TrEMBL record:
Official protein name in the record: Secretin/TonB short N-terminal domain-containing protein
Highest taxon of the lineage: Bacteria
Any GO CC annotation of this UniProt entry: outer membrane
Keywords for the protein's UniProt record, in alphabetical order: Cell outer membrane, Membrane, Transport
Pfam families, sorted: STN
InterPro entries: Secretin/TonB_short_N
SMART domains: STN (SM00965)
Keyword match Membrane: yes
Record bears the keyword Transmembrane: no
Amino acid sequence: MVLGTLSATTLIADEAHAQASGGDQRIAFDIPAQPLDAALTAYFRATGVQLLYDSALTAGRRSGEVRGNFTPREALRLLLRGTGLIARYSRSNAAILTSPEAREAAPLVPLGRIVVREQVAPPPRFTMVQRLAFYGQLARELQAHLRSDPRTNRLTFSVRASIEIAPGGKLERVQIEQGQDSRIRQLITEVLTGKVVTPPPDGIAQPLIVALKGKHGAQD
């Protein structure tokens, strides 16, 4: 994630299926008050609820504390308390975070479980739905590459990678920024480097910061 005048995207793709969707099931939360971006990542890991938001909205904001057993919607309301932001849902496990006065509230498209943080150079060239469609496609392609390779299809991992996609879609740069251990980071780098994915549309700057999770022995 790059803030400031650069634009970037953070995508969290859980290739082992997230723990829950945004229904009425209560989940145990232990999310302290902290920078809002970090709190939203922790919320995603606990719920699997898809979120899309502009990084300019979350920069400098702090979350509310969420401790105890709540439904995902209850927890998100508590997390956003005092931030001035709201969640607009199109279905139980997908929401756009926005300000109450924002007019863009188009429905989300069906995707895998992702979280996207982005800052697109103004004026925005694509609607949230169009951007979500690209991120969902990218998530599916990255997951497919990791699942199809015997080096990574049974790994348990949670890593963040900076990737750059060539005009033809080749992953020409993959740099793991954080992860569980050096061996896993190396394997993921080797598997993804050189693979072909959908290139980002014009107006979405690179590198893309991608957070990936995998669970040992996960099956579709």
